[in-house]
Amino acid sequence: MITIFKNKKDIPQDMEYVELNDIFFNQNTALMIDEKAEKIIETIDGAKLISKFKMRSKFNDVVLDVDKLSAGCKTVLNVLYNPNTVFCLKECGNNALEILYGFREGNVYSDYALIPFEMAVVNVQTSSGKKEIHDYEELKEWWNYEE
Question: Is the pTM of this model over 0.85?
Answer without folding.
Answer: yes
